[in-house]
Amino acid sequence: MDVLDGSVQPIAPAPGLDALGYDSRDGLLYGVASSAVDGTAPTVQAIDPRDGTVLATAPLPQDTYTAGAVSADGLFYVRGRRTIRVVDVTDPKMRMRVVRTFAVRRALLLDDFAVRPKDGLIYGVDDARHVLVRIDPRTERVTRLGRLGVGPLGVGSLGVGRVSAAFFDAAGTFRIAGDRMVSVDVAKLKARARVDARRVAVLSAHPPALVDGAGCLAAVPRVIDDLPSPQVAPSVERLASSR
Question: Which residue ranges run through the membrane (predicted)?
Fold first, then answer.
């Protein structure tokens, strides 16, 4: 999906593919393929985003993987039910291997997350509570940063619904997508602080239904209706009345 004009270009059928991450170093997508129908063991896949060609695969331990992101130093973080596995994708011969596993000690409903290039911290949205969270992969600490207002459309909510995709754009802004797209400045967030969320102009219609997504941005989407923190509700009212 082109986030500047909203156009969608199918690449290839990808049944069972989840936990997508984009590696800016080599321009490849990485994801986890598995089948809940026939019990196929999950595998990491390196994918050419131009045509969907699978360039390499490697096995993963049996689990259900829902979120994925590649760090600036070439580590692919994939989240299972209770753990995050770290896959090294830096090998020129594409021999991908798990180099570390750590537990997520707090119950979180994360459909996707992203690694901030500047500091290597992982950000996502707990869909059970609509709360922005930060995971430090060095200390394994999970920090709740505050309610994001991304539930169903209404007073105090931007109407994003369940967050299915998360990524950082070329400017370092955290962007999430569900029924709508929202950008969040995470540079100076404190634990349980109010979060300044801004709607992002992507397309006049809603974004397509996503199982997962990864940002491959070369440009920054145009931001509309910037709101001074924490005045989210007035924006929602204008949005609802324009429908």
Answer: none
- Taking only the tens place, the pLDDT of each residue in 178-209 is 777 777 878 777 766 666 555 443 334 455 56
The verdict on residue 25 lying in a domain is: yes
Question: What does the block give as tokens for 68?
Answer: 């994925």
User: Cis peptide leading into 230, omega within 30 of 0?
Assistant: yes
| Number of domains the chain is built from | 1
pLDDT in tens, 82-124: 899 999 999 999 999 999 999 987 778 888 899 998 899 999 9
* Percentage above 90 pLDDT, the chain: 27
24-40 mean pLDDT: 78
Residue 126 lies in a domain: yes
What is the CATH classification number for the domain harbouring 45? 2.120.10.30
**123 occurs within a structural domain:** yes
More confident residue, 192 or 30: 30
Domain that holds residue 184: 17-241
pTM (global) more than 0.85: no
Assign 3-class secondary structure to 209-225: CCCCCCCCCCCCCCECC
Domain assignment present for residue 127? The answer is yes
